[in-house]
Write a structure and sequence with these properties.
Order of helices and strands of chain B: HHHHHHHHHHHHHH
Radius of gyration of chain B: 26 Å
Number of strands of chain B: 0
CATH topology of chain A: Jelly Rolls
Helix content of chain A: 40-55%
CATH class of chain A: Mainly Beta
Number of helices of chain A: 5
Distance between the termini of chain B: 24 Å
Shape of chain B: elongated
CATH architecture of chain A: Sandwich
Distance between the termini of chain A: 70 Å
Helix content of chain B: over 70%
Radius of gyration of chain A: 19 Å
Strand order of the largest sheet of chain A: 1-8-3-6
Largest interface: A-B, 23 and 18 residues
Oligomer: heterodimer
Structural class of chain A: alpha+beta
Chain lengths: ~170, ~350
């Protein structure tokens, strides 16, 4: 009984973490509540209509977008087929961030899109100023890149097999 | 044409105009509060990174400043008040500054004698009496300063009360820095969003870095000038050094102002002329250290303007609005120039123009 009352009292004083939505993005999964708060300070919520351009190829690279809902079509060299579709909790811009200062692809909303955006420079500064947090994010990025490379390899081998069979 | 849209924009414009009209008196305070916030922001952010809530970080920084002010007040204020009163009495009495007194000072006496010689050689020329008259009228103007202050005490009090609001405004600017940024950026459309972020950051970096660098330079130059004037034996070194530190913000002319104030004090005290040379030498050494070590390391990286442009800007600022504009003209021109440059480059890169 006492346990239940304590639990109820605790629930009264315990506020839900309003930045917890960021944990759904794989690269931020390891961040604690305070680190999520720091990150959220630099996040900007944006809405895009279906068909609206997020950015075009050769635009200066400034923002990294994390998709909250909706679908985005990306056309560029980052995918072997030259086209990929990004969905909820996926992001766009991180690969270019480590490569060059201009966009290597263009992105357009297929459906209405809600996204969170962070400036590349704010993101890098945040990791520089908070090394512990930076290591967690970078390790998350490495894991995601590793998954992505394996997936690309699997896609490429299936395409090759398909070509051989035909 | 969409009339509803047009009407809405007209309404918005009217509301904005009314807002600007209503709040026009506090714009200056907002700017001062912004300057204050930019200077304090790195300390607040440093504390925040150590897991102290932002509001508590701001309170902590304020407490440290209050503590420092209290310490400085107890340590230096009696000296400053004493030195200030001394100069004030000197100006107010008019005794030491009468034309006849000043022309007896050896250095000035040389000029006075030269003019008397000219007067005797050229009939009708009355340069020497005119010089005494000029010095007397300057003396009268200086002596009227206390009266001027007494006559305008209401304005002075209202200015002081406005100044008191600056830390309060600054508190909210520091505490809600990210919320304010987000709110400002939410106004931009998706097309201009990245451009706005780039411009905001450029403004943030340029203004913040420049202000902090200038404050550091003021403190260091003021400190060095006080020590240098103290060593050469000029009276009121703390006050003159502090003034020289602030005046030093004005490129090219500022250092002369500090030196001139020191020389003027020597003249008023009736000290030997060699003291003026010592004061100039002290200020020169401070300038050498400032120009070769402090400025290039601290401020140099923040502003890259051609010296000729700096000089022209300071002169133009002086003509436009006196000493205040001489102080702010260079950073203002530089900030405007850098923002316009970034704006042009990005408008082109984002294919907006």
């Amino acid at each position: 009984m006492l346990k239940l009352i304590l639990g109820w009292l605790k629930s009264l004083f315990h506020k839900a973490d309003k930045n917890a939505y960021l944990k759904e993005i794989s690269i931020f999964r390891k961040l604690d509540s305070f680190e999520l708060y720091l990150l959220n300070n630099f996040m900007h919520h944006r809405s895009f209509k279906a068909g609206e351009l997020l950015f075009d190829k050769d635009y200066p690279l400034e923002m990294i977008f994390f998709i909250e809902s909706g679908e985005i079509e990306v056309l560029g060299k980052a995918h072997p087929s030259g086209r990929s579709v990004l969905k909820k909790n996926q992001w766009i811009g991180i690969m270019d961030m480590y490569h060059e200062n201009i966009r290597s692809s263009s992105a357009r909303a297929i459906t209405p899109v809600e996204a969170n955006a962070i400036s590349r420079k704010d993101f890098v500064d945040l990791m520089d100023n908070n090394p512990h947090m930076g290591v967690k994010i970078l390790s998350g990025i490495c894991e995601s890149f590793s998954d992505y490379i394996f997936q690309i390899c699997a896609d490429a081998s299936s395409i090759t097999k398909g070509n051989t069979n035909s | 044409m969409n009339w509803t849209k047009l009407l809405f924009y007209l309404l918005l414009l009217s509301v904005l105009t009314l807002g600007v009209f209503f709040y026009r008196w506090i714009f200056a305070n907002l700017v001062y509060a912004m300057v204050f916030s930019y200077i304090l922001d790195p300390f607040v952010s440093w504390l925040e990174r150590r897991r102290i809530p932002r509001w508590l970080s701001v309170v902590g920084v304020y407490l440290v400043i209050i503590g420092l002010l209290a310490w400085m007040t107890s340590r230096f204020l009696p000296d400053l008040v004493k030195q200030g009163n001394y100069l004030f009495d000197l100006y107010a009495s008019g005794k030491h500054l009468s034309g006849q007194y000043i022309v007896n000072i050896p250095f000035v006496n040389g000029i006075y004698t030269f003019m008397q010689n000219l007067d005797s050689q050229i009939p009708g020329l009355t340069l020497a009496p005119k010089m005494v008259e000029l010095l007397d009228s300057a003396n009268e103007s200086l002596a009227s300063i206390p009266k001027l202050l007494m006559d305008n005490y209401q304005n002075i009090l209202s200015t002081l009360s406005l100044i008191a609001t600056i830390p309060l405004l600054s508190f909210f600017m520091l505490k809600d820095k990210y919320k304010l940024r987000k709110a400002a950026l939410e106004l931009s459309t998706n097309r201009y969003f990245e451009l706005c972020i780039i411009l905001l950051r450029k403004f943030d970096t340029t203004v913040g870095t420049f202000l902090r660098a200038m404050l550091f330079e003021v403190i260091v130059v003021g400190f060095m000038a006080s020590i240098a004037f103290g060593i050469v034996g000029i009276k009121n070194p703390v006050l003159i050094g502090a003034t020289a530190g602030v005046a030093n913000i004005i490129p090219y002319f500022g250092p002369f102002m500090g030196g001139a104030l020191a020389a003027f004090t020597v003249l008023l005290n009736g000290g030997p002329i060699i003291m003026i040379v010592y004061a100039a030498l002290a200020m020169y050494i401070v300038q050498v250290i400032d120009n070769n070590i402090i400025y290039p390391v601290v401020v140099g990286g923040t502003i890259s303007m051609h010296p000729l442009l700096v000089l022209l800007t300071v002169i133009a600022g002086g003509w436009y609005g006196g000493i205040l504009w001489m102080l702010i003209s260079v950073p203002l021109v530089y900030i405007t120039y850098s923002i316009m440059k970034v704006l042009y480059i990005n408008l082109r890169d984002f294919r907006i123009i």
